[in-house]
Specification:
heterodimer; A: Helix Hairpins; B: three-stranded mixed sheet
Chain lengths: 102, 640
């Protein structure tokens, strides 16, 4: 089995992470921003797994499980909040949610 | 010979207990308890003082009793040991303070019988006596200063006793502030002495030790210290220029006036000068100032007393005038004569005030002599005792004031102050006039009492008349301890005091009999004039007042000294306070700094809050910049 070089994996991870960051900062739809966060989390997961397997350490792979758990919980809570916001304000546009603003 | 005498502390402990009792238990236990404890503590103190006085009397001349207390201040080489000391001088003073003070306390029981605030009154009275006793018993200048301040405080508390009246409260503050000016001088005097002594390595303010090292003070130090301390005395003892508070102090309850004028406070200055006689003997210039101020005060205060309609004001100015005599005496070097007059004055002036209080009490608070008259039959005891006191203050031969005043005038003449003697002798005539004016207007002539008060007039109760009778006896015989030389026991008083204050050394020879005859003759002339003016030709004063309107108004308005002080001191002070210190410093600089700081913070916040857009993505962007910065830093570290 040929090994994918580590550099590729890291580059892919960095690329996905960058897409997540840019998406989070530029899109105004909370749902999309939320998906961007998931992208960033998975980019980090990818980095952990690849480094873990290459270094022969279980730690990286165990941490991924934790990240996935947290991500699942976060998705549940976050989506709940977004639905509640939509019900109350009939919008999921980040610019409209300015209640705590000066 | 110095003897340790621990009971001296009791003289202070009893009034102190009275203060504590009247403060904390008095209002709860009621009037009867206060009436027993207030005067009772004074009488206990009087008993101990008498015991101490008899002890000192039986010891050889020049002895002293002492009672060390504790070390109070310790600062490098300088330390203050508190201690009590009774020698002939302070022995006489504690007898006056506790003796006359006790009877004034007793009298107050009757006088304050209708006042709700009796407990507070006796608290202050006890505190007053306590402060004066601290002043007199102190064996060093610092402790004396404690008492000095204490009497100032108590005078404020008691003058403003009926504090709901704004004018009374104002007069209380006036007394306090005027005294404070003098006290500043006193304090500077202490510092002057200390620095002059410390310059030679002697760190002490103890009287005995100061006297032993008095030669170190010779020169400007003695003059400066003497003048500064005398400034303090002009405040406490109501001399020119700081006498203005005393006539206004009349708004307090009458026993307070008696206590201030007779037993405590105003005699403090005379006592201080006599106590520091060794210092003043080194400073002839300061002595000259003391004598001159004394004679001038005696004369001017006497002239003001001539026209005042208020019975207590006449007595107030007569006190200022008599205090002037005392300073004339001590300023001439006749310290024993000055203290002698303090004693006789305590008797007759205490009596005069208590009699005036009795008159006022029977007329339900009336103080205007134009609304009195013919009270002789209604108030027989008050009349006779007041007449005795008046004869004493007018220096009629045989009564106590005659002996002491004569000694002072003799001292003034024989020390070479001819003009001051003349002023004093003329004042003796003025004294006779205004005192008998008071007697004639109050007790003789036609009744000018308001009709609705006429049938209320009654002699005061026994608790008030007994002190009157006791003091009347003392005002008569009190002077007999200082008879002219060669008569019976001679001047026993001066001999008793001489180990402490030294003997008077005449510079000019004079015949005491001649001097006495002149002063007594002038006094008699004053009485005669008062008789003509107020009994024989009662219309005459009004005609004269009309003819000499300018002079009359000037005297009635007390030479407009209050207005003068108002113009040159009070108003500029208010101007500086308001325009410069308040508007300039306080409102502009201090408020400006405080408000400016507030405004700067507020404006900063206003700007800073604009960064808080409430948009999550903005926050995230800043967060990202931070992350990039931190990561770059570590990357930079790794690369290099």
């Amino acid at each position: 089995m040929t090994m994918v070089p580590l550099t590729y994996l890291m580059a892919l991870s960095a690329a996905i992470f960058a897409i997540g960051v840019v998406g989070f900062l530029t899109r105004r739809n909370i749902l999309v921003m939320f998906m961007s966060i998931e992208l960033m989390l998975n980019a980090v997961n990818l980095a952990f797994i690849s480094l873990g397997s290459r270094l022969g350490s279980m730690d990286g792979q165990v941490i991924v499980f934790f990240v996935m758990t947290v991500a699942a919980a976060e998705a549940a809570v976050g989506l709940g909040i977004i639905i509640t916001i939509f019900r109350n304000r009939e919008t999921v546009h980040a610019d409209d949610l300015t209640l705590l603003r000066w | 010979m110095n003897v340790e005498f621990a009971a001296l502390a009791l003289i202070l402990v009893f009034p102190a207990l009275g203060v504590l009792f009247n403060t904390f238990l008095g209002p709860r236990l009621g009037r009867r308890a206060v009436n027993v404890v207030g005067p009772g503590m004074m009488f206990l103190s009087f008993t101990v003082a008498t015991w101490a006085f008899i002890t000192i009397f039986t010891l050889p001349a020049g002895s002293a009793l002492y009672c060390p207390l504790w070390r109070w201040i310790e600062a490098g080489s300088f330390h203050v040991e508190l201690g009590l000391r009774v020698d002939a001088l302070s022995g006489v003073m504690i007898m006056i303070v506790t003796g006359v003070g006790s009877f004034i306390h007793l009298y107050s029981v009757g006088y304050m019988a209708h006042d709700e605030d009796y407990a507070r009154f006796f608290t202050y009275m006890n505190l007053f006596a306590l402060s004066m006793l601290i002043l007199v018993l102190a064996d060093n200048l610092v402790m004396m200063f404690v008492g000095w301040e204490g009497v100032g405080l108590c005078s404020y508390l008691l003058i403003a006793f009926w504090y709901t009246n704004p004018q009374f409260a104002y007069n209380g503050r006036k007394a306090f502030i005027v005294n404070r000016i003098g006290d500043a001088g006193f304090l500077l005097g202490i510092f002057t002495i200390l620095s002059a002594l410390a310059h030679h390595g002697v760190w002490t303010l103890n009287f005995t030790e100061m006297q032993a090292h008095a030669s170190l003070l010779e020169g400007t130090a003695a003059t400066a210290a003497g003048l500064l301390l005398f400034l303090g005395a002009t405040g406490k003892s109501a001399q020119i220029p700081l006498y203005v508070w005393l006539p206004d102090a009349m708004v307090g309850p009458t026993p307070v006036s008696a206590l201030i004028h007779a037993a405590t406070m105003v005699t403090a200055g005379v006592y201080m000068v006599a106590r520091l006689n060794f210092l003043y003997m080194l400073a002839p210039d300061a002595m000259m100032v003391v004598a001159t101020i004394g004679a001038l005060t005696a004369f001017f205060a006497g002239t003001v007393a001539i026209v005042q309609p208020d019975i207590k004001r006449v007595l107030a100015y007569s006190t200022v005038s008599q205090l002037g005599y005392m300073f004339l005496g001590v300023g001439s070097g006749a310290f024993a004569a000055g203290i002698f007059h303090v004693m006789t004055h305590a008797f007759f002036k205490g009596l005069l005030f208590l009699c005036a209080g009795s008159v006022i009490h029977s007329l339900e608070g009336e103080q205007d002599m134009n609304k009195m008259g013919a009270l002789r039959k209604h108030l027989p005891i008050t009349f006779w005792t007041m007449l005795i006191a008046t004869l004493a203050i007018t220096a009629v031969p045989g009564f106590s004031g005659y002996f002491s005043k004569d000694l002072i005038l003799e001292g003034a003449y024989e020390s070479g102050h001819f003009w001051l003697w003349l002023l004093g002798a003329i004042t003796a005539g003025i004294t006779g006039f205004y005192m008998f004016r008071l007697i004639f207007m109050t007790f003789f002539g036609e009744s000018r009492v308001e009709p609705d008060k006429l049938h209320h007039i009654h002699e005061s109760p026994a608790v008030m008349t007994i002190p009157l009778i006791v003091l009347a006896v003392l005002a008569t015989v009190g002077g007999w301890v200082g008879l002219p030389d060669g008569l019976l026991w001679g001047d026993a008083f001066a001999r008793f005091l001489s180990p402490v204050v030294g003997n008077f050394k005449p510079a000019v020879a004079a015949s005491p009999a001649m001097l006495s005859a002149v002063a007594t003759g002038l006094g008699g002339l004053g009485i005669l004039l008062a008789y003509v003016f107020y009994l024989r030709l009662p219309g005459l004063p009004m005609i004269l007042a009309w003819r000499l309107k300018g002079l009359y108004d000037l005297l009635l308005e007390k030479y407009r000294i209050d207005e003068l002080y108002n113009l040159i001191v009070t108003r500029p002070l208010f101007f500086i306070s308001n325009q410069i210190l308040n508007r300039g410093v306080d409102q502009f600089v201090i408020d400006g700094a405080a408000n400016g700081a507030g405004i700067a913070v507020e404006a900063g916040g206003e700007m800073a809050r604009r960064s808080e857009t409430g948009n999550v993505q903005h926050y995230a962007f800043v967060y990202l910049i931070g992350v990039v910065a931190i990561v770059s830093y570590y990357v930079y570290l790794v690369i290099h």
